[in-house]
Amino acid sequence: MNIHLEPFGRSDFRRLIRWVSNAEFMLLWSGPYFTFPLNETQLEAYLQSAEGVPPPRKIFKAVNRETGEVVGHIELNMIDWKNLSGMVSKVLVGYENRRGNGIGTQMMQRLIEVAFEDLGLHRLSLYVFDFNEPAINCYKKVGFKIEGHLRDFRKAGNNRYYSSYLMALLQPDWLQENAK
Question: Per CATH, which fold does 3-178 belong to?
Answer without folding.
Answer: Aminopeptidase (3.40.630)
